[in-house]
Write a structure and sequence with these properties.
Two copies of one chain form a homodimer.
Chain A lengths: L15 H12 L7 E2 L10 H18 L1 E3 L3 H10 L2 E3 L2 E3 L4 H9 L3 E4 L8 E4 L2 E4 L7 E4 L3 E4 L2 H13 L21 H12 L4 E2 L5 H15 L15 E7 L4 E2 L1 H12 L3 E10 L7 H22 L5 E10 L6 E2 L3 H17 L3 E3 L11 H17 L3 E2 L5 E2 L4 E3 H19 L5 H4 L1 H7 L9 H6 L15 H6 L5 H15 L7 H16 L7
Parallel strand pairs in A: 2-12, 7-17, 8-19, 10-11, 11-13, 13-14, 14-16
Antiparallel strand pairs in A: 1-7, 2-4, 3-4, 5-6, 8-9, 14-15, 18-19
Helix pairs in contact in A: 1-12, 2-9, 4-9, 5-6, 6-7, 6-18, 7-8, 9-10, 10-11, 11-12, 12-17
Chain lengths: 522, 522
Amino acid sequence: MDEQQPQAPHAHRAGGRAAKRAARSARSGVSMPFITRRIGHYEVLDEDGLALIERNADTILAEVGIDFRDDAEALAVWKAAGADVQGERVRCPPGMCREIIRAHAPAEFLQHARNPARSVPIGGRHTVFAPSYGSPFVRSLDEGRRYATIEDFRNFVKLAYLAPSLHHSGGTICEPVDLPVNKRHFDMVYSHMKFSDKPFMGSVTHPERAQDSVEMARILFGDGFVDPATGKPKTVLINLINANSPMTYDATMLGAAKVYARANQATIITPFILAGAMSPVTVAGTAAQTLAEALAGMAFVQLVSPGAPVVLGSFASSISMQSGAPTFGTPEPALVLFAMAALARRLGVPFRSGGALCGSKIADAQAAYESVNTLLPTCLAGVNFVLHAAGWLEGGLAMGYEKFIMDVDQAGMMHTLLAGVDLSENGQAMDAIREVGPGKHFLGCAHTQANFETAFYRSPIADNNSYEQWEAEGSQDLAQRANTKWKQQLAEYTPPPLDPAVDEALVAYMTQRKASFPDSKF
Amino acid sequence: MDEQQPQAPHAHRAGGRAAKRAARSARSGVSMPFITRRIGHYEVLDEDGLALIERNADTILAEVGIDFRDDAEALAVWKAAGADVQGERVRCPPGMCREIIRAHAPAEFLQHARNPARSVPIGGRHTVFAPSYGSPFVRSLDEGRRYATIEDFRNFVKLAYLAPSLHHSGGTICEPVDLPVNKRHFDMVYSHMKFSDKPFMGSVTHPERAQDSVEMARILFGDGFVDPATGKPKTVLINLINANSPMTYDATMLGAAKVYARANQATIITPFILAGAMSPVTVAGTAAQTLAEALAGMAFVQLVSPGAPVVLGSFASSISMQSGAPTFGTPEPALVLFAMAALARRLGVPFRSGGALCGSKIADAQAAYESVNTLLPTCLAGVNFVLHAAGWLEGGLAMGYEKFIMDVDQAGMMHTLLAGVDLSENGQAMDAIREVGPGKHFLGCAHTQANFETAFYRSPIADNNSYEQWEAEGSQDLAQRANTKWKQQLAEYTPPPLDPAVDEALVAYMTQRKASFPDSKF
């Protein structure tokens, strides 16, 4: 845990009263800053199984090795640490990476938001939901599928800000392809800062863009950026560093990782794996390879900047063995997810995986089946940082407006599920059962009246009316109701207050930097 | 366990080879007769929490009591057993019902199918999927929503027979409202016998209809009906006995339960609860009441016929506190389900709950989100008999043709999930990782080639093609693809062989019985 304990309704594992308060907050549309689970983690492997995967990961690191490409500094770091470096191939004796990580990496840390009430603890029993990341396209019922713009990006930052069940503003929610590739990051980072006060992610597509993200964060947080107790920057950015699976890290990602690690900003080291193409076709093989790659990446970060926050990431999908296309919401990736969550806990680092993933092009039943088949394992496994919790369509190629609203509703349900069973006297409700008795109904009893408002999760978009009423209201499907909802939310959006001087300084920084080099498509 | 051990791919908790064989069966469209889980049960309550719910159930049985209505024999049975009977109210001292059940009820039993390869064990680590039950309406993309007919009923029996992931033919899949109420059961039971060779359910709407179900089963099984070892009928029917919650059993259900119990046929004793209306608005209160009602019902069955198979059933949904409408796929019923599954295991009886429940009127994203939010907890909790695994729409008011096909696909995925992680040498795939190494791909490696066919669950209806291909093929949603699929399946259906003499005897029985009393609307 970082130096500051967040003050949140869910911060304590307490009895029924806290659960009730949390439930009431969720239902009244008030954001909870994060989830602290009160139910256990689901495990698919026992001690022997987990130890087997760990041994296999060690074997991969020792015998096969990991390539660190086009980064002489990285190879020098590994050599100095005692690894066997042959060309760009790095091999580590069994246990070495694990020891480095355990010696330095925090088990849990706080990512600060500019609004301190929205800071999020990453790790432990906490779960943080963030929007999807990286889509070049957006999709809506009105326009179908088209390339994303910075206007879409801002829209999704606003929608995430308004979503009571999302705790985080995310990163590259969609690619603003109307802006030059090498300057997009300014507008994306600025949008997170300006249109939301939730925590967010920095740019990773070039070390300089990572540095820009840090500099803008320094401006945003001002005097609060450096922690007086440690003299180090507070962790205010969390950043997605993908391995180039199998068993490869490239210079771009390594460069960004080094920038962030040295600035005490968090990195999520994520082997991005379509099993069958980038890893073996089996769950145990994919888990061992994921662990090996993540161990190498996280150990590298700790060698560069001991104590810098790192998160073990796992993105595992299967592929269609007919077409090679990625598939989502299938059972094998859920098994990988359960296994990896347990392995991260054993290692003692926070875990990122899952989300509301799907392969469907549209917000139909396929999208929904697949999304829950990922999100529910995500939550039961105990994922700490859930990227892609809302909006994901088409294997990540498109960000859906309606899908976003639908997924936000699902994320809301997860708050209630993870709060577990209230066993307080009120939760037991024995007075109600005594009062009502056989053959009567509970609608009017004192206990029901007292718990009326917080009783059940209320979906803002599900239709549970009578068939006749649903028909009279136009026989809408869920996507149509979600369409109404996001337009209404954008129309009603008001931004969180931002000190005008800070805003000016951010704009000045961007303007100066943008003018200092030409636009580029790379 | 009953006298006969079924021979099934999943019958042993073995290593990777059995898993692989099972996976191959699932993928090749061959029915697996049932699932035997290789992963653990998810628990939301610890020992103390479960013991608290049990104590509260005992308190309800001792202090509040259960009404057994319009059935003097039932009251006499309770009085003879030592219960406190006041009018129709039955109160049992703490522990009494539990002791009766533990003394007599089997922890697991075999439901025989006319095709012995399709007999299903109910209980233990087994899971059996059956279609939805009880809808007066059907829905398809072609016709929208209309009243169900016997033709629809036959269609769904055929579709369930063809579904590799459904192990059971179910019962009242939909209400054939074109037939007289008091004679429908003949055609329903006959349809299960004629158009499928999977196990099925009997009629419960009147004791005489239960008796007709037993008599037709006796004809179907012929010499095999009575077990020579015990002299008792084999268990060939499983039957849904709902409590009239709160805390009431009515004469119809009690009458049917007695008929089945005395014929050694299985009963599923299910408190059917819309929490907030028929139980308190809390998870712990609903669980305690469900357990109390189920304990009373199961103990009653054991008093009537000691050793007759019983299943602890739980159907719990929440309601909208605004409209009073039932809601499905919300988190609270999932918590009830997890709790009840653990309570059934502690009691030592098989458990029925869950399914693919939803409130949506159509096979849209709402239906899918809600269905997985029920089905996945159903499977992770360890439900043994999963009624409503396919087809459910509109809170059970409509049986959906497309929804059925979509849910069957989901049920198929659950086979893979519950098979867990293959930790065999082939499953570990270390040779593949060694062969491929950093920066290469796994598509062509020897391990991938060897495991190509069984590698991942294959959905027959999900679209994972490129966006362009999907668009070229008409931009169909999942429901449209499912529509094509069910029509194709019905067109290709061929019935399982049935001895013509048995068929004639069944028809003769029905003809004689139907002619012996007038049609009625009740």
